[in-house]
């Protein structure tokens, strides 16, 4: 099982803070997300930033996931 | 067929106090950035974060009746305009305006004419507080 | 006859000691060389402030600065700057604030206001077009910033905009702030203490003149572009959904996700309770969505706590830096307490970053038994909200241990714990570190070390590597550099991006535009500023990006030379050991330290400074038309280095 965390507007619109998902790679994980979440990710697809254990990954590369990995999905944030 | 009166309206709850409407107004009309020369007035309370007061031309036409040279008229679309070639700068219109939104610039009165159908203040209001 | 667009063409000089004021024309050649804002202020500070002046003395200057874009509907152009010599660091001091006061200075007919001397009694300086008045303010002395602003506006007129100090500035707390328009802060470097020493309680401004531009038709095109970038451009949605929606606290949980949320006095960069103090959590307390003057990003809010212990708290913000400083930094997960501390600091007039950091320093001293319980009347333990409230008041009024903390961590650590706590007094040049961590983003280490203010997050902080914006990296630095630029965990390529950002921000801080739109989102860069400045001012050279870059270099170098003149050089460009020797203990950046030296060597090379001596090459200064600093620096340091004939 891996943990998926949603940030900012993705969290707000999905109503979800985090989810536990049983997935072995990134594609499998994304396919197992609830329908409403998929719709929200689709809405922001041009802006999504995905991190695995704090490192940015390219969703085009099907990253292998290990147990207890943390996947963060956000749109760009900034400030200081 | 009745005249459709078009005028600026504001939703005060949406205003954030950026004042970009007043700046683009004075720039569009007078080529200078000066909120005091804007043909709409915004009074934003930064302490509590609320639009406390505003004044817009609602094209009421009060200024038409007081103009001695009939320089002020309502056009076919319901916008009240000042024909400056006829204006004698008596400024009666300024005191007649119930919203105090006629601005005097270099001695000449000016009022909101909705920028000939493309109101710049509405365009620069990114929160949609201003509309026609 | 001053003919440039954007500028007012005048500098107002005020002598508080003599109660005199006069104005002088702004030289067009100076505008061309230094733009305005902090660039122009750097030139004036160099020439008008003697070397070695005590920051808390009548001789110190307080410069209130606008740029040519201020008040001209330029993007994010409601901000202004205040420049001085810092009583906290004895180095270059600048702070910027939003709100709506900056444009009023321009509308009153001035580009800059240069204040010197000290009033005999508490005074309010009121500027209204051509009139400048010194108003007695003994009845205001002692009031907090909210009450002061209310009183000044009631007395002078509601259309005045006010910047003022609270008790902290009056009591010369070394990190006292100046509060603008109730909620905006000229936070860092102790400018509030400079005003307090001058017995200048407030400056109130209103103006009725306008700002004209050189080429209105071309400028209109720039405005259309500005509109497009904020409504339909590639950064419009991220700006709206992040900064607009949540304000700067939009950062909290994402920074935590990359292990860069400073926790427990920067012991680590990951906190399990980050969610509780996030932008999303703060949204529940939103009372109003608000903006600075002339800004499309609109990242501000008014926040209110309705119930509980802090019921009735109404405050502007809190900003991300305050959320980290009083939240994760102190292990306080009650966001209502963070909101309350924001208000307390703003009303007393204290920099929230420095205040949070002196408190976390104290907590760590206590945790490690360097101080005993009996020296304070509260338990200085992590997460103790009551203790924090007491310490803030103690600092503002210099009571008990507050009197020591009021000097800043660098000095406080020499007293508290017999000097054995200095390893966790986290500062550079005496300025307490801000809400970043160099172990989780290596470029931060360099930016803190070389920034003219000290551990500063606004003079050259890079975001291209924060979340890896590859397109931006490719465009600015070349496709071949994308990998190393975007990898925040390597020291490679970081000197390149920090130096570039420092030059760009030197221009941004002179124009003046906000960091939102320039630092993040990266909506505007040199090319846009060139496109803006030429039709605005009529200065042909401003339309040339190469020229603008040169001006940025010139300004960045002059500020660095100011510090050198004050004896603050390379030996101050160090990081606390926590970041270079203590591997990040937890979180996604676990195990990393920041290796500063290689980045510093590379930065010096890019800057045209000699790493061996810590001094600029003569050729660099001459190339930047800063020859006037050479004799002054050579008088102090001996001859400046020259590049060898062999390169």
TrEMBL record, chain B:
PANTHER family: ADENYLYLSULFATE REDUCTASE, BETA SUBUNIT, L-ASPARTATE SEMIALDEHYDE SULFURTRANSFERASE IRON-SULFUR SUBUNIT. Signal peptide: none annotated. It holds the Pfam family Fer4_10. InterPro entries: 4Fe4S_Fe-S-bd, 4Fe4S_Fe_S_CS, Fe-S_Ferredoxin. The keyword Oxidoreductase does not apply. Residues 6-35, 47-77, 78-107 form the 4Fe-4S ferredoxin-type domain. One of its GO terms (molecular function) is oxidoreductase activity. CDD domains: DMSOR_beta_like. It comes from Ignisphaera aggregans. Keywords: 4Fe-4S, Electron transport, Iron, Iron-sulfur, Metal-binding, Repeat, Transport. This is 4Fe-4S dicluster domain-containing protein.
UniProtKB/TrEMBL annotation, chain C:
Residues 7-209 form the Aldehyde ferredoxin oxidoreductase N-terminal domain. It holds the Pfam family AFOR_C. One of its GO terms (molecular function) is metal ion binding. Transmembrane segments: none annotated. The keyword Metal-binding applies. This is Aldehyde ferredoxin oxidoreductase. Keywords: 4Fe-4S, Iron, Iron-sulfur, Metal-binding, Oxidoreductase. Belongs to the AOR/FOR family. Its cofactor is tungstopterin; [4Fe-4S] cluster. InterPro entries: Ald_Fedxn_OxRdtase_dom2, Ald_Fedxn_OxRdtase_dom3, Ald_Fedxn_OxRdtase_N, Ald_Fedxn_OxRdtase_N_sf, OxRdtase_Ald_Fedxn_C, Tungsten_al_ferr_oxy-like_C, W-dependent_AOR. It comes from Ignisphaera aggregans. Gene3D superfamilies: Aldehyde Ferredoxin Oxidoreductase Protein, subunit A, domain 2, Aldehyde Ferredoxin Oxidoreductase Protein, subunit A, domain 3, Aldehyde ferredoxin oxidoreductase, N-terminal domain. It comes from the Archaea. The keyword Transit peptide does not apply.
């Amino acid at each position: 099982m891996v943990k998926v965390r949603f940030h900012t507007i993705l969290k707000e619109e999905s109503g979800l803070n985090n989810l536990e998902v049983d997935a072995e790679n990134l594609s499998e994980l994304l396919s197992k997300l609830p329908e409403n979440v998929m719709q929200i990710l689709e809405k922001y697809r041009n802006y999504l930033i995905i991190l695995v254990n704090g490192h940015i990954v390219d969703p085009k590369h099907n990253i292998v996931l290990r147990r207890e990995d943390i996947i963060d999905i956000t749109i760009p944030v900034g400030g200081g | 067929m009745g005249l459709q009166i078009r005028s600026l309206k504001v939703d005060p709850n949406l205003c954030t106090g950026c004042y970009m409407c007043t700046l683009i107004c004075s720039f569009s009309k007078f080529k200078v950035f000066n909120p005091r020369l804007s043909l709409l007035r915004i009074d934003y309370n930064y302490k509590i974060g609320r639009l406390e007061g505003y004044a817009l031309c609602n094209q009421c036409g009060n200024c038409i009746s007081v103009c001695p040279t009939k320089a002020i008229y309502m056009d076919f679309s319901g916008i009240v305009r000042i024909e400056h070639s006829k204006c004698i700068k008596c400024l009666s219109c300024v005191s007649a305006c119930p919203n105090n939104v006629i601005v005097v610039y270099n001695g000449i009165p000016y009022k909101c004419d909705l920028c000939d159908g493309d109101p710049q203040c509405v365009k620069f209001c990114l929160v949609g507080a201003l509309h026609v | 006859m001053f003919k440039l667009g954007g500028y007012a063409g005048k500098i107002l000089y005020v002598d508080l000691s003599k109660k005199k004021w006069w104005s002088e024309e702004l030289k067009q050649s100076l505008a061309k060389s230094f733009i305005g804002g902090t660039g122009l202020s750097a030139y004036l500070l160099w020439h008008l402030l003697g070397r070695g002046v005590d920051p808390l003395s009548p001789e110190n200057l307080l410069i209130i600065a606008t740029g040519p874009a201020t008040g001209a509907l330029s993007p994010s152009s409601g901000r202004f700057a205040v420049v001085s010599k810092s009583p906290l660091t004895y180095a270059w001091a600048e702070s910027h604030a939003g709100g709506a006061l900056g444009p009023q200075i321009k509308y009153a007919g001035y580009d800059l206001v240069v204040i010197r001397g000290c009033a005999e009694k508490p005074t309010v300086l009121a500027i209204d077009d051509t009139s400048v008045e010194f108003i007695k303010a003994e009845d205001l002395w002692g009031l907090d910033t909210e009450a002061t602003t209310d009183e000044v506006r009631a007395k002078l007129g509601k259309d005045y905009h006010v910047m003022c100090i609270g008790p902290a500035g009056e009591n010369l707390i070394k990190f006292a702030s100046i509060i603008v328009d109730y909620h905006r802060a000229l936070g860092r470097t102790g400018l509030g203490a400079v005003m307090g020493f001058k017995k200048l309680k407030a400056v109130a401004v209103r103006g009725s003149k306008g700002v004209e531009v050189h080429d209105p038709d071309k400028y209109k095109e720039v405005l259309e572009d500005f509109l497009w970038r904020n409504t339909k451009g590639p950064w419009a949605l991220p700006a709206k959904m992040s900064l607009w929606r949540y304000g700067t606290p939009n950062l909290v949980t994402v920074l935590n996700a990359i292990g860069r949320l400073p926790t427990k006095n920067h012991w680590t960069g990951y906190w399990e309770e980050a969610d509780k103090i996030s932008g999303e959590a703060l949204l529940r307390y939103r009372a109003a969505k608000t903006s600075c003057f002339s800004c499309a990003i609109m990242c501000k809010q008014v926040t209110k706590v309705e119930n509980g212990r802090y019921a009735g708290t109404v405050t502007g913000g809190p900003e991300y830096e305050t959320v980290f400083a009083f939240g994760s930094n102190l292990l306080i997960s009650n966001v209502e307490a963070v909101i309350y501390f924001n208000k307390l600091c703003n009303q007393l007039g204290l920099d929230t970053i420095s205040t949070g950091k002196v408190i976390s320093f104290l907590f760590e001293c206590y945790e490690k038994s360097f101080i005993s319980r009996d020296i304070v009347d509260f338990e200085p333990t992590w997460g103790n909200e009551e203790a924090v409230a007491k310490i803030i008041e103690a600092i503002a009024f210099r009571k008990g241990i507050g009197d020591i903390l009021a000097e800043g961590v660098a000095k406080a650590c020499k007293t508290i714990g017999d000097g054995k706590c200095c390893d966790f007094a986290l500062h550079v040049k005496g300025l307490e570190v801000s809400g970043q961590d160099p172990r989780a983003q290596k470029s931060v280490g360099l930016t803190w070390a070389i920034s003219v203010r000290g551990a500063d997050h606004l003079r050259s902080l890079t975001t291209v590597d924060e979340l890896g914006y590859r397109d931006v990296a490719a465009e600015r630095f070349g496709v071949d550099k994308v990998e190393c630029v975007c990898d925040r965990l390597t020291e490679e390529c970081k000197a390149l991006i920090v130096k570039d950002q420092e030059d760009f921000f030197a221009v941004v801080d002179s124009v003046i535009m906000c960091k939102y739109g320039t630092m993040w989102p990266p909506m505007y860069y040199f090319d846009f500023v060139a496109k803006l400045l030429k039709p605005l001012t009529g200065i042909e050279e401003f339309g040339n990006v190469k020229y603008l870059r040169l001006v940025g270099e010139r300004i960045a170098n002059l500020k660095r030379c100011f510090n050198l003149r004050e004896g603050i050089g390379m030996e101050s460009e160090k990081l606390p050991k926590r970041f270079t020797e203590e591997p990040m203990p937890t979180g996604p950046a676990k195990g990393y330290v920041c290796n500063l030296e290689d980045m510093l060597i590379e930065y010096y090379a890019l800057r045209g400074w000699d790493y061996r001596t810590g001094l600029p090459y003569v050729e660099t200064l001459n190339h930047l038309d800063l020859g006037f600093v050479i004799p002054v620096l050579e008088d102090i340091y001996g001859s400046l280095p020259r590049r060898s004939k062999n390169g």
